[in-house]
Amino acid sequence: MNGVEQMKKAHLILIMLGAAFMISGAQEKETPRFATYQEMRAHVGKLYKEKKYDEAVAILEGALKQFPDHVHANTYNLALMYVQVGDPEKAWEALEYGLERGVWYGRYDFANKMWESLRELEGFSAFERKNEGRRKEAQKAVERKLEVFMPENQVRGEKYPLFIALHGGGENIEGFIPEWTSPLLKKEFIVAYPQSSQIITMNGYNWTEDMELTKKEIGEVYEKVVEKFPVDTSRVIIGGFSSGGVASLEVVLDNTIPAVGFVALCPAKPEDFTADRVRASKERGIRGTLITTEMDNRLPDQKAMAEIMKAQGLEHKFIVTPNIGHWYPENLAGMIDAAIAHIMGTSHK
Question: What are the φ/ψ torsions at residue 13 (nearest 5 degrees)?
Fold first, then answer.
């Protein structure tokens, strides 16, 4: 679904596992107390992996008052536990509790089949409409963000290559910047990290809700950075993770900006990824690297894209890393630097 599966995965492994939820029917068994939210989160995550869902429910129910600042993650994770123990009514009650306290849930938070029992409940569709209404209200207040970093040891009067780095679906630039960096980017590039305006979670954004809007925003980012920073416009690369990878490919195929190459990690296949568009990109001199993992559920489509690139003569690298799923490889920095070297036609150690 165009770059949002990683968000679903993150929910399933209990990202931001939260505090608890005091509702009727709590277990009478005494539950442990935790010094910090992180300690509680880690313990509940362990229980989830061990499939001790009843114990996790008890902890989450008993911890809300102790960690009230995490009501969003708390209620979602409590609902998840209740689904696992076969009590969708309690799960819905937990989610309603969150809505009553001003939070809302992501656009794709309930797309997994595990939530089917909630969608079968009479009235749950009204909850979904109310939740989507909250998202639409949040969309009206979104402010676009852009962080730009100059290379270390910048020399006055010198121009530098530009890398536009795009976060994944459900992410924001605060979480993305530490993941998408490398020695070469820090030393030799102007790096622009734009944040999509398309909100899909309370603190997460996506590039693939409206691709025409995405291309417009990236074009504007390019113009703004070129206007304000010493960019060598003959050396522009774009890349990103998941939905950011899709957007990178779309921008290159559409020639939205004068990019010379792309670095796409775990992207879905763009809707109009055709041999003709790839060939046209090849004729403009585009080079790129497509990175994925053995357990990424889009691997067949990624292999198909690599085959089209090969058939059309587009210079590319196709890298499949070990079994980490739809996420950032540990050695991503090295892969980014090697990808840049390939695009620029330079050596990389």
Answer: -100, 15
Phi, psi of 334 (to 5 degrees): -65, -40
pLDDT in tens, 289-336: 999 999 999 999 999 999 999 999 999 999 999 878 899 998 999 999
CATH number for the domain formed by residue range(s) 145-344: 3.40.50.1820
**What is the b/e burial string over 33-61, where b = at least 16 CB atoms within 10 angstroms of the residue's CB?**
ebeebeebbebbbebbeeebbebbbbbbb
| Per-residue tokens: 107 | 């656009």
Q: How distant, in Å, are the alpha carbons of 162, 201, 348 from that of 232?
A: 7, 36, 21
Residues shown for the chain: 349
Domain chopping of the chain, boundaries: 5-140, 145-344
- Residue 285 gets the label, from left (phi > 0), alpha (psi -120 to 50) or beta, of left
Backbone angles phi, psi at 249, to 5 degrees: -65, -40
> pTM here?
0.88
- The span from the CA of 82 to the CA of 88, in Å, is 6
